[in-house]
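Schema walkthrough. Field components (list of strings):
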Amino acid sequence: METRSEQIKGEPLIILLVEDEPAHAEIVRRNFAGFRMANRLVHVADGQQALDYLYHQGEYGEPAQSPRPNLILLDLRLPKVDGLEILEKVKTDPDLCCIPVVVLTTSSAEADMIKAYKNKANSYLVKPVDFPQFMTMMEALGYYWLAWNEYPY
Amino acid sequence: MFHPTYLTSVFSYKMNTPLKKDSRSLHVLMAVFIIVGTGIIAAGYFYYLDYRNRYQTEVERRLTAISEMKVSELVNWRKERLGDASGFYGNEAFASLVRRYFLNPAAPEVQRQLWIWLSKIQVFYSYDLVLLLDARSVPRMSVPDTKEPVSADTLQYAGIVMRSGQIHFQDFYRDGHNQRIYLSIMVPILDFQNNNKALGILVLRIDPEKFLYPFLNSWPIPSRTAETLIARREGDEVLFLNELRFQKDTALKLRFPLTNKELPPVKAILGQEGVVEGRDYRGVPVIAAVRAIPDSPWFLSARMDKEELYAPLQQRLWLMIALVGVLLMGAGAGAVLIWRRQSLRFYRDQYETAAALRENEERFRTIFERSTVGKSLTATDGRLLKINHAFADMLGYTTGEMEKMSFAEITHPDDIPASRECIRSVLAGERTVYRLDKRYLHKSGRIIHADVSTTLFRDADGSPLYLITSVMDITDRITTDEALLRKNNLLAAMSDIFKEALISKTSDDVARLCLTLAQKLTDSNIGFIGEINSSGRFDTIALTDPGWGKCVIPKTDAAVMIRNMEIRGIWGQVIRSGAALIANHPGTHPDSVGLPAGHPPLTSFLGVPLVHSGRTIGMISLANKEHDYTPDDQEMVANLSIAFIEALMRKRAEEALREREEDLQVKNAELERFTYTISHDLKSPLVTVKTFLGYLEKDLAEADAGRIEQDINFIRTAADKMGLLLEELLEMSRIGRVVNPAVNITLGELVNDALNAVAGRIAEKGVAVQVSDETFTLYGDRSRLAEIWQNLVENAVKFMGDQQAPRIEIGVERQEQDTVFYVRDNGMGIDPRHQARAFNLFEKLDPKSDGTGIGLSLVKQIVEIYKGTIWLESEGIGRGTSFRFTLPGAIKIFDKNAEALDTKRGE
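Field assembly_structure (string):
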């Protein structure tokens, strides 16, 4: 299925995945890889790296190396810099606030949810323990955010 | 001792005013007497005057009446006589008879008829003699028959009568022959036949003695001097016609010239009529009623001697005078009596007053002297005139000594102005009495509190004389009052402390309040409160602020000074002995160790230990009271300290409770986080497992070997992680529950334990571990304590990073306050931004590292169990990390020297 935007642009969507657990990152990678939509998944394992990427610092000093993501998938529990902190930073940054941030976390705690939404998370997804469910969600995630959702440029 | 006349003179000062009153009353009395007397005299006079007038009138009336009577009688008599005569006059019968007789004198019948007729006349009309004269004045017949010759006077008039043919009343004459006085009426016998030529004369001779004189001499009332007289004028003389009372031989003999106008008859002759005053023939003043007897040459004077006349008047006068005199005397006597009585009364009053005065004085003196209340007489200028024993004793002087002083000398200087003001207001008349509390100075210098009442005594003119003062010693009451006040203040302070304990946040606030109150109660300028800390040293928990102001020690040094102080000096003595101490000359106290430079000097000192459950746990120290500290101060502070200790303990308990609560809260929060973290961290690998199982299924179906292996790996890793997690979780929970018995263990041993546990990793990484030589003995759970170093070393090893010569240094630093343990590494360090979260549960600053991230959290927990703190220092990435921590709870002190402990190993 091709979106109009894709028809127009034809460029892959860049998704920044901020996830400290490698297994989980793998899950997302496998999922998004399956999509026919061209997308490029950038994975950072901790919050500091995520910020470095977004602000073209540290490792990601080269802007070419860190193209602006169209979508951020954000885990909450992160070493060094907490997920919520990153969320807040992104959403308050005039430059980055338009980037949709989808919280993808194991935590179903109400408090986390509220905090995420308060910090203007675009969506909050809880990783289900059930595999089929997880697959379905991932698919939906992909379709929704990669196919249906429109991204400003 | 007590001068008897002093008060008398003082009291009788100007008391002589009653005498003035007396003379005034005398004057009044005299005036009254004079008035009364004058009244009496005037009354008497006027009465007399009135009486005299009346009397005079009466007299005049009487005299006039008498004279009138006499006059009328005389007139009548004359008329009668003339009437008699007229019986013959013109009596033709008689005339014819006479003629016949004359013609024939011898005719017996005629003679007899004539004789009868003449006798009848004589007898009937009571004439002295009836004489018939013929024309030649020859007596032809007489009855009584007498051969007396006819008097010359008669003869004298006979011719006239015969010629005139009128009856002639011959007035008094003296018969030359017998020298007797007669009057006669000569009636010419007219011959009617002969042209009324007088035949003869019938002489009717009247003897005045028969009737006239007696009549004249009669006076209706007996009188001494009264007489009636008649007189006639003869030329320019007055001739008295009757015998006068007071002079003999006056009839027809006594004469006075008419110039003698004093004679009443003269007055009559000269025309006066009525009552006249004059002098009679004697020269005696007389009152006479004079009249001219009409139809006669006579002038009547009914006269009485003025003297006799007025004798009654005189009498009256004398009577009046006597009466007046008597009345005056009576009045005078009365006045005198009254005056005497008044005098008497005055003197009696005087006497009584004097007696009363004496009595009063005596009473006053007794009261004054014997009173148990101090009394004084003070002059208006403040000099003490008279002092009673009570007062003198009160102030420790003798009365003689005090009577030389002035009130200012015995009054406390601060109270002199108030006393002066009271005296001034009383002298100015603003009030008559004042009362105030003031302080006197005992001879010894002690202060005597007194309740003083003073009255101003004025003399009769109202000018101030002196002040009478009563002085009551109320020192006891004041002392009691002061004691009560102090007690009140103490109780108030104690309750304040309790209140403060309820409302204040920290126990230091309570201590500060207690210090403030203690200072106030004891008038101290500076002080501190402190307690013995767990090191056996002294922590100041409250210090007087002004103390800092006066203190020139730099703040930083001072701040250091107030904690963990060595217990020494005078104040140290209090703690060592556990007993309160008063040192009013602290410099000279044997335990004095002097003051730090810049500390304000101590002039007096009071230290009270804080004793709780029999142990000295601290002290309250006060200094620099203006006067010396007293046992009362000590007692008050001691009482206050009890309240303070209670409050402090309570506060501490509160604080402990709060801490525990906080702890609990923290723990709760941690637990929550724990639970949350667990759920999260357990869930995560579970998700991994289940997901990759799913993938595995798919991959097995597709026989994607690479993927299969991947999947299986992921699953295994996740499961491992879950297992590890569970283990460590168990470990964590065990920390809270199972505690091994505490033992003494050296630092070296602990470190060894730790290093042994991590030996593999150390060797693997080739880390050099350097342990300091310092020996230190700790007291606590060996394995737990060892875990601290174990985890820290493990961490250090883990995070060596790229360090080529990895090195770990383990040691202990002895600082002023605390003992600090450290584990230093030269590894990769920790980003300053992330340092704060290092000790958080499950915090893994490097996700790639193994371990669950609970290590540091664990270490922190253990450190905190031993009441210590842990922190890290790292300058940043690649600069190594230094973990430092204290374990005060594992350090036990037996005495102030920590080294000594080392020598008692294993105890």
